[in-house]
Amino acid sequence: MNEKETASPVLIYGLLILLALIWGSSFILIKKGLLVFSAGEVGAIRIFSAALVLTPLSLPKLKTLNRRQWKWLFISGMVGSFGPAFLFAYAQTQLESGITGVLNALTPIFALLVGVLFFKGSLKLRDSLGIALGFAGTVVLIVAGSGGELGNFNFYALFVILATFCYGLNLNIIKTQFNVLTPRMITSISLVLIAPLAGGYLFGASDFIHKMQYADGAGMALLFICILGVIGTAFALILFNRLVKLTSPIFTSFVTYLIPIVAIIWGIWDGEILVIGHYIGIILIILGVAFANRPKK
Known about the structure:
The protein has helices at residues 3-6, 9-24, 26-33, 39-62, 67-91, 97-103, 107-118, 125-145, 157-177, 183-204, 208-214, 218-246, 249-253, 255-269, 276-292. By secondary structure, the chain is mainly alpha-helical. Mean pLDDT is 82; it is low at 1-5.
């Protein structure tokens, strides 16, 4: 049975909104974690906690995989989880959480380009126009966040741009390489395969243990990052991979157009400033999502 043909629009858009709420909240959680832990420690805790929760799901399935599936699941784990977890944490050492959420909206651009260039994807006019409108909103938000001057663009934003490229690549990997694997298998196994790297860094090459013993607020910071790992990485990736299978990489990546709204709301709650340019950018982004995904006549 083809899931695309039977999936309810309510289910598809419900998953899209739920993912936006979860991932839009991830930036404020990173920000709180960075109050105690380094960027590398935040990324490692995020991956390790997510993998720890999903280990019981993955272990029974490991023996069923062939060599090709092992390879692609490891690659998916690296580009879709490991790399972005560290890149976003490093970016937020110098970027506001709301602005980081805004830059995350570049993912659809890379999903489209990677799909067309490397995965034999096609480019529809309606999709390209919708993405262009969403990207225009993203540019407006970036300029607004830099005081209205492009010259003030923070170098650390490049970490987010690289992370969004990784997300775009992973979107296409999931769609093209895992036709026989369930979303739960993809998520759990890919995270477990990269967990030793995160754990090795966390417990062998960082000050995590020392900070947990002596740093003020370490317990609360750890809780924030574990919530990020378990809910924002493990649980959300299962939903995300399911949505990819139900729709397409381009449609699924539109969740990143909604993430800035949630991220900015959290930023305002935490004392970050929202200017008129943010409102304009948000409106353009929503219009881009609506236009690119409007029903066919």
